[in-house]
Amino acid sequence: MTATRTERDSMGEMQVPVDAYYGAQTQRAVENFPISGLRIPRQVIRALGLIKASAAVYNHRVGVLDDRQYEAIVQAAEEVADGAHDAHFVVDVFQTGSGTSSNMNANEVIANRAIELLGGEMGSKDPVHPNDHVNAGQSSNDVFPTAVHVAAYLAAAEELLPALDVLHVSLEAKAKAFADVVKPGRTHLMDATPVTLGQEFGGYARQIELGSARVRAALERVSELPLGGTAVGTGLNAPEGMTDRVLDELRDRTGTIALREADNHFEAQGARDGLVELSGALKVVAVSMTKIANDIRLMGSGPRTGIGELQLPEIQPGSSIMPAKVNPVIPESVTQACAQVIGNDTAVTVGGMNGHFELNVYIPMMARNVLESSALLATSAANFAEQCIDGLTANVERATELVERDLAIVTALVPAIGYDKSAELSKQALTEDRPLRDVVKEAGVLSDDEVDRILDIKRMTEGGVL
What we know:
Helices cover 59% and strands 8% of the residues. The chain is mainly alpha-helical.
């Protein structure tokens, strides 16, 4: 049986594991929310530690904390930020919707660790109290969403955007490498006029470039922090000037100058539109990556009965029963991760629309989903580039074979011989299973040289009338 100690909160006594840094309110939340076994993301714990350390700096300056309390709280909070006490953050992510339980989890861990550093008795709340000292001038209602926004901002800026840049560079490189590989275009999954493989990859690169721009734009709103609004946005119990100084300290500790106080605290606490916007941008990136991954695995289908215009890197056996089979496993992993991101966004959307009056109470779930989506896209984008895109090669012979059989090249003949005649010759070539070029020459509607000039497949990719 686990040894316990007695801690107290405003509702009475609770038995807490004797070696736990958390206290009564955290233990109560553990018992109240045995939901998923999923805990608050590490990035949010880090942000909570940084916020508590930053607040302690201000509270020491104004005399709320003495030197010993201040030094111990800052050390404990920095340890929390660095991950030293993650095992003591035990509250389920599906908890009180404001994140109060996780804010108190942080307050109690920091307070008890500070007490330990000062040689006191954990659980005594002396000489450091979780509410009066660690949480001074703060509320769960402004601290927790601030921590979530800081975490989401840093995750996107430090991990996702660099990974998208890697993918963008890889796609751009292939766009240049494949610039002269002409192949059939396809619309409605049916043959269309020719394009180059480079043009297609240039389109993919632009999708990722625009996705990065969308995420950066959303981060402008995520960088607005509700800190200073305390309980309902009015700032009750937050001394004048506290928010500015705490945010100055937080910017220094994160190295992120973009973090700033919200223009309107009632919007910043009553709504989570910034997170919804960021999640939406992540969804767009997921949609783009899915389209790219699907196109690549379709163009790589085969090796003998598919399209076969691309050769994907062979990185693992594809079947437990079919020898030598190799599957497009990296694009498959990308599309699965993207499906999860799209699902996460639906839950974030529901969470955002269910903020009521002065507080949104879906924040822990929204935080988990946004941070998971950001991480999934970051790792998938980098892995997609390294394990698939960089190793792609073009099957030029196959692409040339297919484009010569592409009946849609008849489109280039329309200005010279008209739509109806072009359609007639195209249908004849299809019925007789012959190259269009041969059928047109045989019809005698143009000289052979003129037919070859107009049916120049490379020139068709450059636009204009041939």
